[in-house]
Design a protein that fits this description.
Elements: E1 3-6, E2 11-14, E3 22-27, H1 38-56, E4 60-65, H2 72-81, H3 85-102, H4 118-130, E5 134-137, E6 140-143, E7 181-185, E8 194-196, E9 199-203, H5 207-217, E10 221-227, H6 231-246, E11 251-257, E12 260-262, E13 265-266, H7 277-281, H8 287-295, E14 303-305, H9 307-327, H10 338-356, H11 361-380, H12 386-404, H13 435-453, H14 457-469, E15 472-477, E16 480-485
Parallel strand pairs: 3-4, 3-10, 10-11, 12-14
Antiparallel strand pairs: 1-2, 5-6, 6-7, 7-9, 8-9, 12-13, 15-16
Helix pairs in contact: 2-3, 4-5, 4-6, 5-6, 8-9, 10-11, 10-12, 13-14
This protein binds one RNA strand of 76 nucleotides through α1, β10, α6, β13 and α9.
RNA sequence: GGCGCGGUACCCAAGCGGCUAAGGGAGAGGUCUGCAAAACCUUUAUUCGUCGGUUCGAGUCCGACCCGCGCCUCCA
């Protein structure tokens, strides 16, 4: 039984999809006025975990993520550069897609863009005008929230408790009620304009999600995700628009992930603690280490991003990685040890139990680490055969491919050390290529082995150091030397 | 002011009424090793922000208080 915390009810509830075996999922995507920062990625990684777990549970997922490519920021950005909105947003959309892949996030089925769905938005606005939920004022159209009694239910906000906006409406549009929000904004100097049935102008921010979600997922769908900061007003407004227009419930389950802060403080460019994914990778971290960090704190808990935490994530991921790696060295023949089989089943059950409980990843990881510890013990005392090692490796790989996505078997390293400073996804480990680099490393290892055999430990250590400096760590085992990639030392 | 979140070992982090308080990192000692590394073994919370209360029994429920943080129309 899968259970999720539903913001709407404020409780953990059993999850029951509208249609058995299929989940319709809408997740708030990026506003493409800049590179996504690690806080955005925290949300996307959480959503990826959610989606992967649903898929793993045998449920089909129909996933839609919007791309907001028209709003105040994109308009201002394009205007400042003197280029079109499309020209301005394109590189950020491309960067988003690249970074998403770098982090091992499964792509959604649809990435509808706001600018491509003006017609659908207009349709909703027309409906709202007809039904009396919206009104025109000076060329703009607003949603009248006092016409929608359920307003505030998601955010648990009562209108009378809201502080009147003291800083006023930046756009200087006139509204009947300060809490009303724009569905359609009147044409303005320097802004893109669409000529539509409801008049010229451009869409407000919230309406795109109502329009695009209903187009791709239907008027009522299962899960809507986003960051906690979207609860109010964005998601509250979406509910109002959609339910007022369609007359049916909009979303059954609202899942919101908490913020990521940096060094205990909210990220802000002015504080100098603002990081994009690229900023972090530039420091020499593997994207999957970043993913592991973002993944390993429960989504409803604030995540404090620090480089120390990233180091810890690296170490934790390395433990899984080293375990996978060690399994390759098991040479003993023989039948599978029932004890190992049992350990795997226990771990599987623990992993699933954790995720079923509102994506309690800590419990799941504890189950995985528990398996690693127990299996290592059996391995060390020679009670596990090659068959066991194979089963263990398969299990870890299966869990990683389906759930974690941290790619623990990225070893052996085939990465050009120079590329480790790269800013983009070229950093991603290319596992089965670069035979030349392999050969080069093997030659150095052979040279070191020769030196060791001659008791020339000085030279042996020099070669080891030299390889380490280029990201190759050597380990001497009973069965010979093995090597693996390590991240550059922390700077 | 309204709504909400968090305070568990050196760090991160589960547990949310009942066996000896998961797990990861870091540290210490040991095994292995030419030395490292990895792995294994041992070890690190009579205690869960503080003070009261409920209970046979409380990090776990209730109340008050002290810290830290978020949202209240830019924001994942």
């Amino acid at each position: 039984m899968i259970r999720f915390y539903n913001t709407l009810s404020g409780k953990v509830e059993p999850f029951v999809p509208l249609e058995p075996g299929i989940v319709k999922l809408y997740t708030c995507g990026p506003t493409v006025y800049d590179f996504s920062h690690i806080g955005n990625w925290r949300a996307y990684v959480f959503e990826d975990l959610l989606k992967r777990f649903l898929l793993f549970s045998g449920i089909k997922v129909s996933h839609v993520m919007n791309i907001t490519d028209v709003d105040d920021k994109t308009i201002n950005g394009a205007h400042a550069k003197g280029i079109s909105l499309e020209e301005y947003t394109r590189p950020f959309i491309e960067a988003f897609e690249k970074d998403r892949d770098t982090l091992g996030i499964l792509p959604a089925d649809h990435y509808p863009r706001a600018t491509g769905h003006i017609r659908e938005m207009v349709d909703i606005i027309k409906l709202l005008l007809e039904k009396g939920f919206a009104y025109r004022k000076d060329g703009s159209i607003y949603f009248a929230i006092d016409k929608f009694p359920a307003y505030g239910r998601l955010a648990k906000i009562h209108l009378e408790d809201l502080r009147p906006g003291s800083r006023g409406d930046a756009d200087e549009y006139e509204k009947e009620n300060v809490h009303d929000f724009a569905l359609w904004k009147a044409p303005k100097e320097g802004e893109p304009v669409w000529e539509t049935e409801i008049g010229p102008g451009r869409p407000g921010w919230h309406v795109e999600c109502s329009a695009m979600s209903s187009k791709y997922l239907g008027r009522t769908f299962d899960i809507h995700c986003g960051g906690v900061d979207n609860i109010f007003p964005h998601h509250e407004n979406e509910i109002a628009q959609s339910e007022a227009a369609n007359g049916v419930k909009f979303v059954n389950y609202w899942l919101h992930c908490h913020h990521l802060v940096v060094d205990g403080e909210k990220m802000a460019k002015s504080k100098g603690n603002f990081y994009t994914l690229r900023d972090v990778l530039d420091r020499g971290y593997d994207p999957r280490e970043v993913r592991f960090l973002l993944l390993s704190t429960h989504y409803r808990k604030m995540l404090n991003f620090t480089f120390d935490a990233l180091e810890q994530a690296r170490a934790g991921r390395n433990r899984i990685r080293d375990f996978s790696f060690d399994l390759r060295d098991v040479k003993r023949d023989g039948p599978a040890n029932p004890e190992v089989t049992q350990l795997i089943e226990t771990a599987r059950a623990g992993l699933i139990a954790g995720l079923e409980d509102d994506l309690n990843i800590s419990e799941s990881l504890a189950a995985l680490f528990g398996l690693i510890k127990s299996a290592n013990r059996l391995l060390a005392q020679g009670s596990a055969s090659r068959a066991d090692a194979g089963n263990l490796a398969d299990f870890v790989a299966m869990i990683d491919e389906n759930i974690l996505g941290i790619n623990p078997t990225d070893v052996p390293l085939r990465v050009d050390p120079a590329k480790m400073r790269s800013t983009v996804s070229d950093v991603a480990i290319k596992v089965e290529s670069s035979g030349d680099l392999d050969l080069e490393i093997q030659k150095r290892i052979d040279a070191r082995q020769k030196a060791r055999a001659e008791k020339n430990f000085k030279m042996a250590d020099e070669i080891r150091k030299e390889l380490l400096d280029s990201g190759i760590l050597l380990e001497d085992t009973k069965d010979g030397v093995r090597w693996k990639k390590v991240g550059p030392a922390r700077t």
